[in-house]
Amino acid sequence: MTSPALKTKQAIREPSRKESAKAARLRAANINPRTGLATDYLNHFNEAIMLLEMIPDMPDCAEDFLSWRPLSYREHFAASTFSARELAIAAYDAADPVIRREFDSLTGAMTSILTAVGTAMREARQHRTRATLAAQATGWVKPLVTLAGGIINGEGIQAGREADVDYIMTH
Question: According to the model, what pLDDT value does residue 24 have?
Answer without folding.
Answer: 87
